[in-house]
Fold these 2 entries.
Entry 1:
Amino acid sequence: MEKIRLAAISAFGLEAIVKRELDELGYENVTTDNGWMYFDAEIKDIPRTNINLRCADRVMLVMGQFQVYSFEELFDKTYELPWEKWIARDGKFTVKGKSVKSKLYSTPDCQSIVKKAISKKLCEEYDVEWMPETGAEFTVQISIHKDIATLSIDTTGAREGLFKRGYREKSLEAPLKETMAASLVKLSFWNKDRVLYDPMCGSGTIAIEAALIGRNIAPGLNRSFAAQRWPVVKEEYWKSAKTEARKKIDLNSDIKIYASDISKKAIEIAKENAIEAGVDDCIEFFVKDVMNIREPMCPNGVLITNPPYGERIGETVDIQKIHKKLGQVFGRDKTWSVYVITSVESLEKDFGRKADRKRKLFNGAVRVDYYQFFGEKPIRNRD
Ligand SMILES: C[S@@+](CC[C@H](N)C(=O)[O-])C[C@H]1O[C@@H](n2cnc3c(N)ncnc32)[C@H](O)[C@@H]1O
């Protein structure tokens, strides 16, 4: 089988979790560089990784990597790569780019040179004067970092990264990306034998992603990907990746996830999303103001939540009261672990305890912290 090189791109701070996912899928020798996790693969791994990765943003096909100091060099080295192997005769290709700390710093110029070099190569290979660009979409990316250029093609789809699972038809203000919600669950010590609770669930993303993890349902089973229209990535590869993923689904475990919100509308939307994702049997939704919670519903639970915060929604004073309440109810119960993602810097003070671990992340463009307050290890399972 022919070897190719793929790279899973992760958001800042989530590299280790994406690497862990790749390890679990059996990919060895994963190397990390600047948010890109490179690994050796075969063509059939394009469907496999796109369908199974929960926390990565997208999967790139790495065409080549080289040092570059001039536009002539960029043109020649781009031209040398085997674009005709991937981009079909009618392929529609656009070039995106970025350049950091490099001699070739003008991104628009780099993009246009790469486009010209690929066009020239394809026209010669296909013996045409110009490429009609009416067919499948190929988004080429040129990333130059410290004078090392990486040329890749986006196998996931430029418009719809892996966060798009297909279940969240409706959402409210400030929803978390599905990839971020899955990462928060993966970063916690939650497993399907423990109760999970999100008391400010909004459109239900954390609860739904946890249920998908608990049921072992691959996140990409209900969506399409750019590479599905590429002739080289055969239909049979997609079919067998889906069959493999479906075989792993666990419909028998008794999963207990609770999700509530002060907003009735949010709970209606969250329920619809859970039905769409096929995990509504794992989640109990209810309307509740956090401020009215008196005690945890059971011992040994894991609370993961994304309260409203300043830059997005909510009032600072209320937020501090909510954080205090979380500390009073769940922070004082030694059997509960509490995980909060927020940009509000007074969280630890309001919660009443220093976090056991704090992880710097970005929720979109907003710099946030993921505060982790560990509870005691459960002695027995949920009961
Ligand atoms: C940032 S949003 C959560 C978004 C959610 N993670 C998602 O992906 O859709 C915060 C949520 O907290 C809810 N909320 C605000 N104050 C609350 C309170 N006192 N009790 C319960 N929920 C509250 C809001 O209605 C909103 O849905």
Entry 2:
Amino acid sequence: MMPSLDDAPPPGKEFLDRLRAIVGPKGIVDSTSEAAKFERDERGLFNGKAAIILRPSSTEEVAAILKACNDAAVAVIPQGGNTGLVGGSTPTPAGNEIVLSLSRMNRIRGLDAANDTISVDAGCILAEIQKAAAAVDRQFALSLAAEGTCQIGGNLSTNAGGINVLRFGMAREQVLGLEVVLADGRILSTMNALRKDNTGYDLKQIFIGAEGTLGVITGAVLKLQPAPRETSTCLVAVSSPAAAIELLGRAKTGSGGNCVAFELTHRRLLDFVFAHIPETADPLGRPYEWYVLAEFAAGDMGGALMAMVEGLLERAFEDGLALDATIAASEAQRRALWRLRESMTEAQKPEGGSIKHDIAVPVSAVPEFLEKARVACEALVPGCRVCAFGHAGDGNIHFNVSQPVGADRAGFLARWHDMNHAVHEIVASMGGSISAEHGIGRLKRDELPFYKDAVAIDLMRAMKRAFDPNGILNPGRVIPDPAN
Ligand SMILES: Cc1cc2nc3c(=O)[nH]c(=O)nc-3n(C[C@H](O)[C@H](O)[C@H](O)COP(=O)(O)OP(=O)(O)OC[C@H]3O[C@@H](n4cnc5c(N)ncnc54)[C@H](O)[C@@H]3O)c2cc1C
């Protein structure tokens, strides 16, 4: 059984002074106003109090902090951009956890264009890595709406997904090498830039998606892709989710695998965006119920990519899959289309309480899931407003449910567990996942035993004991309590 640090007393002044000495004055967040952004999660669901917030500047400092905390059995919460949506990166209110922010470790360590690799500190902001790649005519393929704030260490720890999974896979598929500080302070370096390395276990993969429970990622070697020469982006009103999935199949085949993003959304999300996000407008003449935002990207095809997309849409109109469409004619129009998609999370906030589900089902099952889950939620809370959108190209739907208009926010949010249960049972019956890309954190930890294989959970506990015998890394996150 893992030792539990839940009820541990806050660490004493002498111990905190030792940590202060490791990072120096620049590595400590002292003011209460500054601290708030490290102690509160993105959605405001998790508010806590850190014993101290440390911002080390090097892997060696991280190692010294972990060694000290391991020796004293003090909990450490690694934190990246703090954009995670499952309460994994913020402390509990007990005041007994150290927040370890990687934000000062933000150097691009090196870029090898001929090898298509970039080597980075874990605290690099995702958008900065994309920019560095673009500067040498390459692309770093991970992309998500939080990319201006989230850090690559957080992306790898959550195995982030985003809009390009369809073409390039999840975060773990973008990694060649990793540097990790273990709970006892040892530094594991697998920072190689090789596409072939079969020298035993692929240890880096164990830390990717572990949500900081097995080690602190301090550096990574990432794969780069050729920068696209031609891009075509379209917003298509489709006749139904089933029509969207039929269109997806045609888009993948017709483009020879060059469909890089395929996002589905219900009209309600667009209505919220037009109502709450400045300078947005409906690019189509009239409203429809379902839309697809699709993007295609390829090398130099002499303009053939656009012709392929036009042909695809023409046939989709003829066959009744598409009802209306617009293709971006400029980079500004392309950005405007993506802005609609990227604003959807923000646009739900002014509409009151929202109960979230980040689920995945097989792509072919998306239409059936959408219908069954809508019926279940509306039966549970009449008048609730289902806001379904997301990465339909890989089967991941953000099935968010906004409160009925004028309802009591707290009363609606009190149904969180019931609604999650109803939706997750449908997901499970379809062989799906209750966490497609956001992870488990604290939010879904107690649900995990109901939806994950018992042997898999046993192995997760065994790995946790092996990597972090004192249980100092992100205690109470991800790994279910043995009592459950
Ligand atoms: C508007 C919006 C859109 C989003 N869209 C997507 C999306 O499309 N796809 C998607 O997958 N996610 C999405 N997210 C969720 C979030 O952005 C991702 O989970 C992201 O990968 C988290 O990165 P971060 O740096 O903010 O990590 P944090 O939130 O700081 O941390 C996340 C977890 O990783 C751990 N961690 C952080 N850094 C390290 C490290 N260096 N070493 C070890 N553990 C660490 C933390 O302890 C925590 O458990 C979105 C969030 C927002 C707010």
